[in-house]
Specification:
mainly beta; 2 domains; eleven-stranded mixed sheet; 20 strands; 3% helix; 54% strand
Length: 302
């Protein structure tokens, strides 16, 4: 029994084409942003000069210690971090910090930032907006002092300061953000095996195949595939699908029936069986994992 650790991550559309039986979740593609995670320990604060439109010249501070909710996410290429604030008293703010295109955010100062996501490919991106106020255009800079990421856009630790100027004005908004989360969970690993034996029913012509699946965290797996047989020059083929509740530490059995698509039933003899197992990673929303195997199976009369 093999165990595949994040061997294949696919979007739902691609998986549906591959399996034609599973309903998947959308995975990350390129620099897309992962679903936000609620920060365990975090704070965001800022204040503005008189005349700054976003702050109104006031100071604001939010933290998990004060029962404010802060969510954070990073893009799959780690070039963009978004922090959203849902204040305990109804305030809401969004902070976006982005490196120039093709670069990951890392400690250092990013000068010449313009409004995210409309910054040019060679420019850093920055935006602090919320409570119904935002800049049409902005200039600014930010400094990242810590940037520790896990898989799939997981933000373990992130510290930065930032300064922005709305509409080319001299009045500045200055602030800082601090994120601290536990170490990232392990990625989902799973494996699928096909047993070398099966049955061909003389009553309904269906082929029954079986095998085992394994995983490194509790998940519900979808297993499906195709049974193919050639008898006297006739191609016999049928699809199957089933589910299994997988728990770590032991192989879990699965069994399914393939219904022939034509009028010729499956018969005693050798067939080719393909199987593909799919599951969504419960610790990384929007991420899915697949594993596949194709083997020769001997069908007995059943």
């Amino acid at each position: 029994m093999k165990l595949v650790l994040h061997r294949s991550v696919r979007a739902a559309g691609a998986l549906a084409l591959a399996l034609a039986f599973a309903a998947g979740t959308t995975g990350l593609v390129g620099g897309s942003t992962a679903q936000a995670q609620q920060a365990t320990s975090a704070s965001l604060s800022f204040s503005g000069d008189e005349g700054d439109y976003i702050s109104g010249g006031q100071s604001y501070a939010y933290s998990t210690d004060a029962q404010d909710r802060l969510d954070v996410s990073a893009s799959s290429d780690l070039g963009h971090v978004n922090v959203s604030v849902n204040g305990a008293h109804g305030d809401w703010w969004y902070l976006d910090l982005a490196a120039p295109s093709g670069q990951a955010l890392k400690p250092g100062t990013y000068e010449g930032a313009t409004r995210y996501p409309f910054n040019g490919a060679a420019e850093p991106g920055l935006s602090l907006d919320g409570n119904g106020r935002g800049c049409n255009t902005l200039t600014g800079s930010f400094t990242v002092s810590k940037a520790d990421f896990g898989p799939n856009g997981y933000v373990e630790a992130f510290d930065a300061t930032y300064e922005q100027h709305c509409e080319g004005g001299s009045a500045a908004l200055r602030g800082e953000v601090h994120i601290a989360n536990p170490a990232p969970p392990a990625q989902l690993g799973l494996g699928v095996d096909i047993a070398p034996d099966g049955t061909a029913s003389t009553l309904n012509g269906k082929a029954t195949v079986h095998g085992t699946v394994s995983c490194n965290k509790p998940v519900e797996l979808t297993i499906g595939g195709t049974v193919t047989q050639v008898k006297k020059g006739v191609l016999i083929r049928g699809n199957y699908s089933t589910t299994a509740d997988c728990t770590p530490g032991a192989a879990v059995a699965w069994s399914a029936q393939a219904d022939p698509t034509g009028t010729t039933p499956f018969q005693k003899g050798d067939v080719e069986v393909s199987a593909q197992a799919f599951a969504a990673d419960p610790d990384y929303p929007g991420q899915s994992v697949t594993d596949s195997e194709t083997v020769a199976v001997h069908l007995a009369k059943g």
